[in-house]
Design brief:
By secondary structure, the protein is mainly alpha-helical. The longest helix is centred in the C-terminal third of the chain and has 31 residues. 3% of the residues are buried.
Length: 141
């Protein structure tokens, strides 16, 4: 749905924002790009959904899956800082990517800390203790 909405708005408003770069003319190959990214999103959606489901695994077993999103955000921000930020884009763009890196690092630390906390306190990794039943005495026997 995100790909459809993106390309729908791109079709309705082909103007390039101030400071943007024009790779091709408005509408050039727009349908083929929408089809390509639509198929890619559909094909990648199921594996990403599986990874998201596996992130619900409690304890250390699901930690790697929970860390995927902040690690990808950190890596992307680092790469964009090295490539995109130059004197023409100004300090605002640099501040955005530095903020994304910092928030990603905080999210990574919080997720790791929460996992260690749960592991040390035995939550989420141990099966629940069996319920003890009281003996019921029937006084009418």
């Amino acid at each position: 749905m995100g790909v459809v909405v993106y390309y729908l708005f791109k079709f309705l408003s082909p103007n390039v924002p101030a400071g943007g770069h024009v790779i091709s003319g408005a509408g050039d190959g727009l349908a083929s790009r929408a089809l390509f990214w639509g198929v890619a999103a559909f094909a990648i959606g199921a594996p990403v959904g599986l990874l998201g489901s596996m992130a619900r695994t409690p304890g250390i077993g699901g930690l790697g899956f929970r860390l995927l999103v902040p690690l990808i955000a950190f890596a992307e921000a680092s790469l964009r800082l090295a490539v995109e930020v130059d004197d023409s884009q100004g300090q605002v763009v640099e501040m955005v990517w530095v903020s994304v890196r910092a928030l990603s690092a905080v999210a990574i630390m919080l997720l790791m800390g929460q996992t260690v906390w749960s592991w040390r306190h035995g939550r989420g990794t141990r099966p629940p203790a069996p319920v003890r039943r009281r003996a019921v005495h029937n006084k009418f026997k």
